[in-house]
Amino acid sequence: MNSMREITVEKVVVHMGVGESGEKLVKAEEILKSITGQKPVRSVAKHTVPAWGVRKGAPIGCKVTLRGETAVKFLETSLGILNKRISENLFDKRGNFSFGIEEHTDYPGMSYDPQIGIYGMDINVVLARKGIRIVRRFTERRAIPQKQVVNTADAKQYLKSSYDVEVQ
């Protein structure tokens, strides 16, 4: 197979939205740091929603971006928690997919602590082929052929062959 046609995991973004700043957000950051091994970045509210008590610019969640071998290992662990089954409607047109983990305690080494509680997380996976940088770079930006872009069918086939995932 042509090495330029191989699909790889470009990045995995793990996000925990707690809806408020303070102690809950600090706990979520500690959980995310222990699960991924990286320091999380806070995400802020884009709009003010008085009914929810959220102000624009207030920190309401945290996220971590994983790349390379770390992203692949984390994805394997996360798919294992879902029993290697994901729904077909979790994919977008570009072959990226997202899924949720309801309890952080499902990860190895994590246990329930009544002081912390249970937190869920969203996992977003971006798949790409080599050469995609040409589209995204600042200087000398170019278009790439449509066959080089990852689509939904390619992503499903990649998950089945690389991770033995069943897409329902």
Relevant terms:
168 residues, alpha+beta, 50s Ribosomal Protein L5, Chain: A, five-stranded antiparallel sheet, two-stranded parallel sheet, 24% strand
Would you spell out the secondary-structure blueprint of this structure?
Blueprint: E1 7-17, H1 23-36, E2 41-44, E3 59-66, H2 68-81, E4 85-86, E5 97-101, E6 121-129, H3 133-136, H4 152-163, E7 166-167
Parallel strand pairs: 4-7
Antiparallel strand pairs: 1-3, 1-6, 2-3, 5-6
Description:
The chain is of the alpha+beta class. It has one domain (3-167): Ribosomal protein L5 (50s Ribosomal Protein L5, Chain: A, 2-Layer Sandwich), CATH 3.30.1440.10. 26% of the residues lie in helices and 24% in strands. It has 4 helices and 7 strands, in the order βαββαβββααβ. The chain has helices at residues 23-36, 68-81, 133-136, 152-163; strands spanning 7-17, 41-44, 59-66, 85-86, 97-101, 121-129, 166-167. The strands form 2 sheets. It has a 5-stranded antiparallel sheet with strand order 2-3-1-6-5. It starts with 6 loop residues before the first strand and ends with a strand. The mean pLDDT is 91.
Instruction: Give the assembly state of these chains.
Output: single chain
CATH topology: 50s Ribosomal Protein L5, Chain: A
| CATH hierarchy: architecture | 2-Layer Sandwich
- Biggest sheet: strand arrangement: 2-3-1-6-5
How many strands?
A: 7
Biggest β-sheet description: 5 strands, antiparallel
Q: What value does the average pLDDT take? A: 91
N-to-C span:
27 Å
Q: Give the count of structural domains.
A: 1
Q: Describe the global form.
A: globular
* SSE ordering: EHEEHEEEHHE
What top-tier CATH class fits best?
Alpha Beta
CA-atom Rg in angstroms: 18 Å
Structural class: alpha+beta
What is the name of the CATH superfamily?
Ribosomal protein L5
